[in-house]
Amino acid sequence: MKLTFYMPLKPPDHLNPSGDLIIGRELHDALHTGGHDITLASSLRSRWIYWKPLTLARMLAERRRVITAMHREDPDLWLTYHSYYKAPDMLGPYCSRRARVPYVIFQGIYSTKRKRNLKTLPGFLLNRNALVQARMVFTNKRRDEQNLSRLLPAERLLYIAPGVRPEEFTFDRAARTALRDTWRVDDRVVILTAAMFRPGVKTDGLLQVIASCAALLQAGKRLLLVIAGDGRNRAVIEEQARQRLGTHFLLLGKIPRLELYRYYSAADIFAFPGIQESLGMVYLEAQSAGLPVAAFQDWGAREAVVDGRTGILSPAAAPDRFTGAIETLLDNAELRRKLGNEARNHIRTNHDSTVNYGRLVQSLAGIARNRALPGP
Fold first, then answer.
1. Which structural domain, as residue segments, surrounds residue 29?
2. Residue 234 scores a pLDDT above 80
């Protein structure tokens, strides 16, 4: 297949890492390595574009350029990754219609509460316009699937489970031994957490892990908290960890994603609340390496973690239960092994991106074969 590909929120080469960016890149790479001819439509970001007149003007010029390119390349379909109210796709619906190719969205999001706020109303309307024009909308979140079903008929909506490449996040015993020796773990249980140190919910989540570990240390538990990540709030996080955990923490800094398997291998538990996380790729990665997870149940962690089988989920309204989940895992090595093994199997059975994207490709191929059919 020949595909025109677009990421309205962040282009694939954007420097600011995030779970959404990782998924978009991996989707692009999976299609490319699968032998499909994939062309990036544009690097123009549409984040809050409806409040940016100069960027809106650039969008109009970009439409003309993209349509010219599509007439020359004659793609089989247009695939947009991630359209929602903050970054609605304003290129795909228009350009695909003018070029007469099917328009498809992967990870479309529909939230009706955005129409009740004047700041987000334009984004809601623009995003809804994109969704209703799509020949098919794929989603990797069950909650989004439910919301989208209020707007789209079942035959234009398909759930594709989120995934990782399990071979990139496997348990490495040599790395475990080497890192734990370096960290001087002794008889302590290693709790790993990982996130970008940006203000807001990421920092709030890390501070919750620190607070939980501090409470467990006060209760006499033997633990070492290892924190992977970096960002603007590094000083805040480091100061809180030093004050509350003393010598019972390590701050690793930013770890390249494909090196993370070594650190997952060296840990015993992965803990991160995931406040307002849409998904949280770290949950998939940690489980793939055999770690049981402690997280909140309210948001994206429940897409990846099976409560009581691969980890322990707790309500965000009761942070003491998050602390209790960590304590349960900390106190029971056999439970950690059991949940960790189940986690590893769970990822390989349900969240292997190669397998899951195979379903996506099969559906895209069907749409491409029937490209002459009228759109919605």
1. 2-163+353-369
2. yes
